[in-house]
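Summary for the funding panel

The consortium committed to producing paired sequence-structure records for every protein in the target list. Below we show the first two records in order, beginning with the earlier of the two.
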Amino acid sequence: QLQLVESGGGLVQAGGSLRLSCAASGSIFSINAMGWYRQAPGKQRELVAAFTNGGNTNYAESVKGRFTISRDNAKNTVYLQMNSLKPEDTAVYYCNAAITISPGAPRRTFNGWGQGTQVTVSS
């Protein structure tokens, strides 16, 4: 059973920092893409930062220069270092991953979400 487990959310003052972690566990052949999204109350879920299938990184314009995504392939884990946090960064942050479970025929894949972790930035 594949799982994405997030940790690291919390309450922080504006200007502060937090580091989120997302670990994928289960039967994994390869992780094709993995990253972070967020959803604020009353808003749609949006991309924050992600590693793409080609190995590149994408960042939302609003977090460029403040957030950094990184990964530990040996641990199947991605991290999101969030610096200079602003009240508008307040949201539930979700990890998403596209994973190949087995490459044979039939190819088995997983595309799913973690349970979410709350990030609250006070002004």
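The next record, for a separate protein in the list, is shown here:
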Amino acid sequence: QVQLVESGGGSVQAGGSLRLSCTTSAHTYTHFCMAWFRQAPGKEREGVAAFGRIGTTYYSDSGKGRFTIARENARNTYLQMTALKPEDPAMYYCAFSEFCGQPLGADSYSTWGQGTQVTVSS
């Protein structure tokens, strides 16, 4: 069972940047999907960026142009966030799937990290 650990969350002023990191435990999968989701209180979990099975990137409308998903290797994935807005605060989670499906669909992922909190002050 793959395990995920996120880091890099924190508090930033509106317009600022943060880079979130997700590290997986050792695994032998060569084809898999990774994604970043966020969930604010009272809202549904929203996929903001993902790598598909062959490395294609996907972004939500809310993340497109401001968020960049990047992969250093099979175990380290990042979410670079720029131009952060007051509507971006949430718990951010990374997710892993060996089966894939809809890249930004939460139902496509069965393995999740514990989350890292992002706060944006105006």
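Regarding this second record: The radius of gyration is 13 Å. The mean pLDDT is 95.
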